[in-house]
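Tokenised fold entry reproduced for everyone:
>
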Amino acid sequence: MIFISLSGYAQGLCHISGVVVDEKDEAVPYASAVVYRSGRIVVGALTDEKGHFSLKTTRGAEECALVVEFIGYEKVQVQFTPERVSVNLGRIVLKEAAEMLGEAMVSAKAEAVKASVEHTVINASANMASEKGSALDILTASSSVIVQNDAVSIRGNSNVLILIDGVPTTVTDLSAIPAAGIKSIEVVTNPDASYDAEGTGGIINIVSKKTSAKGLSGVVSANYGFNHFVTGNVALSYVRPKASWRFSYNTRYEDDVISTTLDRILDAGRTYQEMTATKYVYNNNIGVGADFRIDKRNTLNVDLKCILPRNNLQQNLHNSFFGDGSENHEKRHNDVTWNRENVEAVVAYRHVIKPEVSDVSVRGSVSKIWGHRPSYYYLEGVQTAYSESGGSPFIASVQADFKQKFKAGMLTAGAKLTYRSNDIYHQFYEGGEYSDAFSNDLLHTELIPAAYVLFSSKIGKKFTYKAGLRGEFSTVTLTSSHEGLDVRNNDFFVSPSLSGTLRLAENQELSLAFSRRVGRPAYPQLNPYMSMVDATTYEQGNMHLRPEKSSKLDFSYNFRSSKVQIFADAYMNYTTDYISQITKISDGLLITTYINGTSDLKTGADLSFKLLPAKWMSATLSANTFYVNTKGNFEGADIDNRGVSNNSNILLDFLPGKSTDIQLQYFLTTPQYYPQLTTALTHYMNVGVKQKFLKGAMSVSVLLTDVFNTYKWQVESRNSIFELTNISTRKSRMLWLGLSYNFNSFKQRKAESKADSDRSLIKLGL
């Protein structure tokens, strides 16, 4: 026994190293690298942020296998013999799985998932609700994101920067983006300095689907919601060694019936309104793109998208007025149409100066929207007013980034120039006559030059950190020929970021992140002119709004094993000059406007707990609980509000067979607290089944949303200005039937079927 022990010691250790990259030669961080000997696991680790891995095993002449896996990529196996002191396996290239065109993602093992204190990534294909819906339906999978009445907030903060493949867009466009064309959604809760400083709540980035399957590949899918929804999707790609081309077309039709009751009590009396509205939605989305691999060091990417939403709202209102012992009733009808054309173009170039050491990239993007909204207003069947409004938002940006690797760490630096403009107009006619009082025009422009520096490194073997600094100077102008308005505001904002991660064990980590963020007022919030919502309610912006500024702090713990995954994040977000929507009374009318509140504090905890008791089942609980304390004063009245809110969901995923998937998901959102109002509790449940045929090439899904028809949106307000109760319901319970077919991907799916299925809906920190 002594001889054997000494002999084993004499053999020494073999140091195994390498780097994991994708087909674009970009590093793949947090991939799983495991060494097998005689079919048994010897040692394993995760790649670092640069894709590097380092392992140690006993030297010997017996052949071993290194297996590398990561979510959404095909598994790679490399044979080697650990006979020397060190073995460098070089660059290991992972190929993207062909199912990215539309199949449910078959991910790598659980150890390939790394939690990040900065962001989470929602896997769109893993949620059956995405079979029928839009980007909004996918966002509900994250407990950090609250979606209510087509509005989006992150951890209770609605000041969110929304991107499509890195290009800024609006919340309105989220409902127009079909889920079928989405690969994943990144929810960045605590961004570092390389991100735009905009968005005190955080950043939501929609990542479109792409494929690397060689030759011609495609997917065709359709979904039908009885009897009011239809969606269709076509995606094609043609991949060659030096270039690849892609095309996508998505369409969606929806007619939704919304029933609303509004009960308002003012000093002048009480107003009770019953409204039934039918909403017609026609969305068409077209995308084309190309990737050119010029050589090993140069790549060029081009993407062009066109989003064409068409919405029409038919409102029937029955208004009752009670005051001074009298009672009056009236019937109104509003006919409102939104027409939008949104064109986006992105060009990106990357040059590798020295492989694995330095590179430079340049990216330019342009987004242009043409919007037009005609509105007709009727009283007792007679047209009383007409309005025409619209705008043409334009966003252009160019960004350059440089990366340099040193012995001490990685340095990243960059600069960006962003230009935004929107030419807004509103023309109002009452009784057939032009009304100068409610007509206006406004040109809103914003120029933001920015620069940043970011350094990442290690201290010892277990601690990694990132430190960054970003500076942004913004110039905002408001001009109006109608009113002779000419206002210019300048603001300089410094955005520091700092994060660190301590690896307690191979599967446990502690992380800390801090950043400063800014929320600049959007053009609807700045527009000082009044526009009519209905006969008694108007909207008006505030051109004197100041940017809100926040400090964000996160502390997280992450644990990963083959049976259990835990991610827990305690956070704080403190915002000064908080931009808040409030309602005031003027001449008996309710006017909604915006003000800078004193402060807004949100502190809470985000938890994701996943249990994998068997290969055929997983259970995931996601919960976000936070305390809100908003302070402010408007015209002498306090608009403070505070309370504890929770947003949670439970996902049960069953795999009774290789080709069958059953999901049950329950959503719960407790009251949310805002200045002047509080939302009521909402909850609902979805159940879905997906069956694959033809070796996975075709799938059929059946989905029942809001099984018990419990969803409703309710707002209550009890303040010194007015009392209000607003209850709204829509067609949330619906049966969906979906059909999807993939071609030219049999070989890839066969390889994927050999991998272990994680079936995770939310991937943390990809």
User: Anything to note?
Assistant: Helices lie at 2-11, 135-139, 171-174, 523-526, 746-752. Confidence is low (pLDDT under 50) at residues 1-10, 98-115, 745-766.
